[in-house]
Each structure stands twice: as structure tokens, then as C-alpha cells.
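tool_log.txt
---
The assistant was asked to compare two proteins side by side. It first ran the structure predictor on the initial sequence, then on the second. Raw inputs and outputs are pasted verbatim so the downstream comparison step can read them without reformatting.
(1)
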Amino acid sequence: MRWWEKGNEEIELEELEEAEELEEEGEGEKHLSLGIKITKILIFYLVIGFVGWNFFYFMFNSEYCEIKEVIIKGNNQLSEEEIFYKSQIKLGDNIFKLSKDNTINYLKQDPWIKEAEVKRVIPDKIIISVEEREPSAIIYFNEEYFMADQEGMVLSQIVQPAEEFLPLITGLETTELKVGKNIIEPEFRTALEIINSANLILPDKFYKIKILAPDDFLIFSTVNDLVVRASQAEEMVSKGYLLKEAFEKIIKENLVVEYIDMRFKDRAVIKVKEQ
């Protein structure tokens, strides 16, 4: 029995040694296989990197990618030449070296341009799309005329406003009006809202508004030189029917009036001129 047990132990030791040898061989093969895989991966990425570097070098330096055309869209007030000049894009420059953010910033320095978008069209075209500001009023200040949009951005200085072009705003008290700067005085927006509301009620009948005080405005009409006095746009809208009735009464009865006062609650007062 002891011999048999001893024989078994010898067999088991031999089997264990063989298993260990096989395991060592397997681990060696695994290490070798892993090393080959890593080497292949490194070679793959080196090839990709080399090809990529050469590709980008070609794209950034090839004449094939030089800017040959700039397309301008969305412009009405500014010419294509003006926008191209303001963009500071140079034909012949590499299309990938163009900074779109810088180009947009250059364009938006012009007060007429509210928003701008720049797109590359590979290999050699640039598309500039602009959203221009819409002029909403002419402001008379210090014996000069300025054009501004609804937000109060001063767009340009003009010599003389064309008749029936835009509402004329006078009496604005401010330190200065400068092209490219916003009008911060709230009376400007109130005045613009009031005259626009009046022209909604009686279309194209009002051409000028004078600011007397932050809550006191005179609106001048093309009809019989009639003048309307108001304090805010809301009262013009809510009492629009009263304004129409007052106009009809004055014209029908041929009244000589100083102004129609809309500042009273729920009524329009016709102030007749003293004879």
C-alpha cells in the first residue's frame, strides 16, 4: 500500500511538472502575442500619424486650398465690396488658416451689421451671410441728422432726410450722438413707439415727433398740420378709436386746433386755438 501511494505521488509530481512547463510555454506565447499586437498597433498609429501629417501639411500649404472667391449674402444697405473689405479676407490666403471668429468680429464693427456668419466651402470658397440692421428713425440733434434702428443703434449720419422716408425725432436730450453707439435715453424708444402706434391707427399720417419731456410728446400729422399730444404708446393703442373720431370731427367741422390731447384717461381732448 505504501509503495502504491509512493508511486502515485511520483506520477502526480511528474504531471505537475509537465503542467507547469506547459503553463510557462503558454505564458511565453501570450507575452509574445501581446508584444506583436502592441507593435502592430504602434506601427498602425505611426502610419496614420504620418499620413495625417502629410495630409494636413498639403491642405494648409497647397495652392489647391487658396481662397479664390468670397460670396456675400443678405446685404441691402452695404455693398458686396464694402463687406468684403470689412471682412479683411485676402484672396490667395489658405482657406484653413482663416479665423472665422476674427472675420465675424471685423464685420460686426460696422453698425449696419447686426449678425454675421462665415462658412468655408472646400476647397477655395468663402460664404459670408449678414443680417443688417433696419433703419427706424431719423434723429435731429445739434443741427445734424442721424439714422438709427429700433434698438437705438446710430447707423449713419445723413445730410438731409428724404420726405416720407422715416419718422423724424426731435428734442432728444443727450450728450452726443455717435455712429456705432447706442442711444441709451429711454425717451428715444418711447418716442419711436408712440409715432409707430399712431401710424398704425392712422396709416402714414404722422411724420415727426418732438420730445418735450420723458412723458410728454408732440406728434405732427400731414393732415391739416394737426398735432397730437401723448405720454406713452399704450394710450395711443387703447384709445385709437378716439383719435380717429377727433380727426374726423376736426376735418368735418373745419376746426382750428392747437393739438389733440391723448393724455387724459378714456378720452381725447381737442384743444381749440384761441381766436
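(2)
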Amino acid sequence: MAETPRVNHDIDYKIYGEELQFVEIELDPQETAIAESGAMMMMEDGIQMQTIFGDGSTQQSGGFLGKLMSAGKRILTGESLFMTAFTNAVQGKKKVSFAAPYTGKIITLDLQELGGTIIAQKDAFLCAAKGVSVGIHFQRKLGTGLFGGEGFIMQKLEGDGFAFLHAGGFIVERILKPGEVLKIDTGCVVAYTPDVDFDIEFVRGIKNFMFGGEGLFFARMQGPGKVWIQSLPISRLAGRIMQYGTYNRKEEGSLLGGIGNIFDGRE
């Protein structure tokens, strides 16, 4: 059976690196990739860079006002009004690369194979083929919106092209069978297909509530569908760095404190 032709630009790509990765996208003449501002690492001569409202997808309509309103929704997800489009304006193939903002992994999503829609955490989007719509998704359940780790508003990627997300640490992809339930730390949910039922479950037991150290809520994901999970949310990494940077020994300033710092590698 012949594969359905893509409406979005059909780009080629290669991911480099292990912990600090970047994705290299190869563009045919007049092909375009879109990315968040500041994501570009390098590009070959012949690629034109253009700042655009929103994501430049075909879903933006209604003239300038329609485009402005569509782009304005991106502010709700913590992103800029603008994105950057990179177009191969010459003959022959040209390459442009986009770098991950912190240690972790780049996730490749073929939206054509994933049903056309993915729900992702607000800061996960890195780049995509032109035509992929980067919009917003509102959590309908009150508990999920209040305690789900990402709030009421998440990103929604729609289209039939390739999109690339980035998340911290190691990334696990889980395929959930119908009725199968997976409980996840709320900050570790990177993305999921819209057929997954995403809800919040309260941690039971007074000892778990007070001393468990895992937070008060789990993300409860029920299949069928796919879920992408990160081992190191950037919020957790930032919290540990701040904790280490503001940590003071009781003996600091004394001989014992100085010796302890040497053993810890802080001197």
C-alpha cells in the first residue's frame, strides 16, 4: 500500500551527540524548517533565515489579525510571539543544525505515524518541518491543571511532518495497552498521544505524604497510547544546583569545615 504523501515539508535529519545533542536537518531546495528563537546552532551558506509570527503553518488564517492571535497563544505556553524559519533558497541540498538547550535527549516524532497530534510539556519543542502547527492544549480536568506539573496549558503539535522535542536526562518511550495504567512523577511527563487519559492521583498514606519525598501527586496515564518520560526534569536539576550552591557547613570557617570541603572537592 502506497504511503500517503505528506502535506508538511518532508525533511531529512541526523542526530549527533550523546548527552548534549544537536539535530542536523538537510533541506532540499525551497524546503523549510521552523524552530524556537535561539535554537539554531549553525547553517550552511544558501539558507535564508526569516522571523515569522507563530509557526508559519497553514492553520494560521484570517490575515494579519488572525496570524497575530494565533501567535499570541504561544505566549500562554511561555514562548515568544515569533519563531524562525530556515529555507534552502539555492539549488542543491543544504544543512541547518539546532542544539539542545541543556543535557538530555532529542526526541524524533513522525506525526504522520503518530496520528497527527502530540501533547507535550511547554518547553519541550525544539524544531520541526514547516507546516507543523505548534499550538496550545488546555487541560480539561481541574486536578490535572492544578497539580499536573505543567499547569493547565501545554503545547500541542499537529501535522504530518517531523517534529523534534528535547527533554532532560534519559528518555523512555512507553506504549500503553488499553486500560493499562502507569504512574509517573508529574515533572517527568514529556509528551503523550491524545488518546492517553492523563489524570492526577493523590499519594496515599500519611507517612508517604509527610516523608516520602516524592511530592503529593502522581501523573496517572491510562492507555491506549504512547507516553514519553524524562529521567531528569530541568526543574529538578536547577533545584539541586541551587541547593548545592547555597549549602553551608556548620563547621564552615573552621579547620574541620575546610578539611570537609577538600574531601568534597569544593576546594
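---
observation on (2): Residues 12-247 form a domain with the Double-stranded beta-helix fold (CATH 3.60.160.10). Helices lie at 63-72, 142-147, 206-211, 234-245, 255-264.
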